[in-house]
């Protein structure tokens, strides 16, 4: 625990290796000593969620934001989770990237992540429109309702920051999972993708 | 033209009134004198698009990025198009909000707008994922292929800034329109919305 520990961030289609420093790890364990600027959003946002009162999803057995499972902590993504200069834009875009991770403090590994990405609109009084993306839990940690917790934390964050609308897109097999989380399909709306050929340089 | 002119930004579900100053208007007319910082993205990005070479969509009669129609100019959204303090976040988020407008320089009105919103990912080498949003053209200016032009300009911008994926969502009646623009529906992906009740405060 005194040296850098390899962490992996899981996404649907990628495994991304990052290093987490022991310094960060000890700051996480003593969250009150951490510098909020180290995190992609203020950790207070999570601390201020009154999960017992606000949560709407049922967990069986019960888990919570503050107690997801032994050794696991839910916290914002950290500047030190990743060492990519080009990611600075994420940290310098105010109140846009609400990336939450679950870390196993016994190993220093990130075992789950979720992104609430917020777009500011120039209409609706500069309203905020949220999107939930990149929900993933390491296969070894599945069956602990952590994905469910990550999605609910993201929706609670969306409500807290004042999103007027939140969406996600998913494969058909995940529709029942997200339906239980309060999501529904509006048959009037259609998701369309741009063909790759339109993105390739001439 | 020497006083403030009322402009309106159209979106699907909103009409948003903004004022445009004559100072801005004259700067637009002499784009080379404008301060790039006034715009939400660098106007050079539009100027650098070799539309004749890069465009893939057919226009009949032919129109182009530099010549959409008499009196109309295509330019980035400007800080002075809107006077809302809370919109500052859009201008202080680097390379995230590529909002393009079409302005009728004879009236100073914004008659069309399109947003390419870019999300930075912590995976795919911090790749960029684009979304096209808020395509709208004032009803008086329809039938001039301006919506088509706005969508194509947004996809050309997406390619230029290096998006690896671009999507949009739309009502069924617009599917043929976006299909002609290079968009397709992937039956495996489903768009889901969060119920409003999950966003309301307790």
TrEMBL record, chains A, B:
Matching PANTHER family: GLUCOSAMINE 6-PHOSPHATE N-ACETYLTRANSFERASE
Keywords per UniProt: Acyltransferase, Transferase
Catalyzed reaction equations: D-glucosamine 6-phosphate + acetyl-CoA = N-acetyl-D-glucosamine 6-phosphate + CoA + H(+)
Family listed: Belongs to the acetyltransferase family. GNA1 subfamily.
Top EC category: transferase
EC number: 2.3.1.4
InterPro entries linked to this entry: Acyl_CoA_acyltransferase, GNAT_dom, GNPNAT1-like
One example of a Gene Ontology biological process annotation: UDP-N-acetylglucosamine biosynthetic process
Taxonomy of the source species: Eukaryota, Metazoa, Spiralia, Lophotrochozoa, Mollusca
Coiled coil regions in record: none
Protein name: Glucosamine 6-phosphate N-acetyltransferase
Chain ranges of the N-acetyltransferase domain: 57-202
Domain of life (superkingdom): Eukaryota
Gene3D superfamilies cross-referenced by the UniProt entry: 3.40.630.30
Pfam families recorded: Acetyltransf_1
SUPFAM superfamilies with a match to the protein in the record: Acyl-CoA N-acyltransferases (Nat)
Pathway where it operates: Nucleotide-sugar biosynthesis; UDP-N-acetyl-alpha-D-glucosamine biosynthesis; N-acetyl-alpha-D-glucosamine 1-phosphate from alpha-D-glucosamine 6-phosphate (route I): step 1/2
Keyword Iron-sulfur annotated: no
GO molecular function: glucosamine 6-phosphate N-acetyltransferase activity
